[in-house]
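Inputs:
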Amino acid sequence: MTKFSKIIYLSLALFAFLSSGFLFAFSEVPANMSSELVAEAALSTSEIQTVQTKLKRWGYYTGSVDGIYGPKTTSAVKSFQKKNGLTVDGIVGSKTAAALGMTLGTQTNNDLYLLAKCIHAEARGEPYVGQVAIGAVILNRVESPSFPNTIAGVIYQPYAFTAVSDGQINLEPNESAYNAARDALNGWDPTYGALYYYNPNTATSSWIWSRQIVVTIGKHNFAI
Amino acid sequence: MSKAMKIIGIISMSVLVGLVIFMGVMWGITQSELDRYRQELNYNYLNNFYSLTDSVNNIETNLSKLSVSTDEEMQEKYLTEVVSLCQSAQNNLSSLPLEHHSINETTKFINQLGGYSFTLHQNILNGEELTLDDKDQIDQLHQSASEVKFELNRLANLINSGYSIIDNIKDPNVEVNDFSQQWSGVYDDTIEYPTLIYDGPFSDSTQNKEVKGLKDINVTQTEAELLMQKWFTDWQISPSGESKGGDFDTWNFMLEKEGKNGYAQITQKGGMLLQLGTDVNAGDKNKQLEECELLAENFAKKVGIEDVKVVWSTECEGFVYCNLCYVKDGVIIYPDMIKVKVSQDTGEILGYEARSYAFNHVERTNLTPKISKENAQEKVDEYLSILTEKLVVVPNEYVGESLAWEFKCLKEGSVYYVYIDALTGKDLNIMKVIETDDGELLM
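Outputs:
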């Protein structure tokens, strides 16, 4: 191989390498995965009752409002769909639901989800009690006048949690984090009312050391 | 040099030049992208800062008007304004890139001011007048608000004359960023915030609630350990110190069994099991809801809590969470509540929490309604179909409790609980059962 062809190969390789780097950098820019998945989940009993009540009121349904999606309900839904120019399949999907004037789907428990995310990000290596403790601190902050008054407000407050600042909060929480979040929401508070916690080996804030320590769990000191 | 070599030379040169141009363009795009994000973030900060300043200015004005107003309708108007201004001020403040300890006191002041104004507003709605003490308090609050306003406007001048928030929060190596330092005027000791005690949200008094439900005996650590061993026979118990200074002084214990861990607290006064938590995972679903509820009730009895019954429970991922309340003469006393977590796999008690019970449990003497069930029922919306009715005691939103009629109702497939005061006939509360992807919630 000649010197020049070496240069060519080298520069091409460099080019490929750098451009892949750039592409990678760009692919990191908000890959907003707005989920287009429309939940076609089964209706809850109360939703079925709502469907039955409405269809009964409008004369499509003659059975009882029992929350059971039986053949009578199905044929009532079909005749409603036919009358309203919808696809006649006897299933209450989003369009049929809209025509019925109801919003489908149950409420997402965002508080639980956010709490689980923060617990997972901040304490996934910690003992379970330590995970519940992080959840409890967040909830204690919500109750305290010195902090924001919602779970989202507390978690996303600037500089409040390292794991939010460095992006670990975006990891999907595991089962243990969900359980810990549930326990915390149900009132378990192994920190006995703490508002702060820190890892004494890594904490740099001199201010945090001035807080009174209530308990130490795993790597963290919990303080008020 | 041969011709071929020359061609190769030209090609490689042009590749190199192309590469440099490409990199330059890419760098430019990345840079402009970054600049755009930075700019948007800075606008966001400025928006929050100016909105905050605006709200505080208006809070100050409203408080000063309130302090000279004698008309109740006007007072109501100013108080409502202050409540909503405090809410938005609090939101703005917590969105700014400021270290917690530099806004700690200001946040508290704003939240308490909002809570206090809310309470005064409720009092006026209930037909009370503002007292002289209230007026004094308002004057003091106005004074503090003026000082916060002064500092915020000083900062606004700084920003208007070119100080950039985003350029002064960058350095990750400093403990307190410059913007927080600039803020120092708002948080240092020069501003005196009054201690606020009122029956409402964020009051200093609800921060130190009175404990009513503990027996008047003191339990030593050894006695507490014996209790633990009696209650949790399967677990290995070891003491882990005490907690003092919170709402309850407690003895703390660690539990261990086959690699699983737990912790528990027993109150030093009264020897009551305050809480238990364990890290046992969910297993098979061998036990039905009803069976778990019974196990929860039996466990409460075992730890010395008599006459409690399950009033609400949810099944979730292999566990049943039960809420148990004290029942006296058939009346459910909701403030005296304990929560028990039962494994559907083994039926074991894996979690327990009794703070509400420990705070509130006393023998109620007057549980006779003045308003009949039929009269109370007339207050229920006619479109609700009533399923059941019960006499209950409910906790008031902030302080105290009320005897009430509880009507469980149905409307279009949704369940509502309507509470009517059994002494005055007033509407107390409406709760709705919300179905979430994680079980039912009562809100």
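Remarks. Residues 3-68 of chain B form the longest helix (66 residues). The CA atoms of residues 42 and 166 of chain B lie 6 Å apart.
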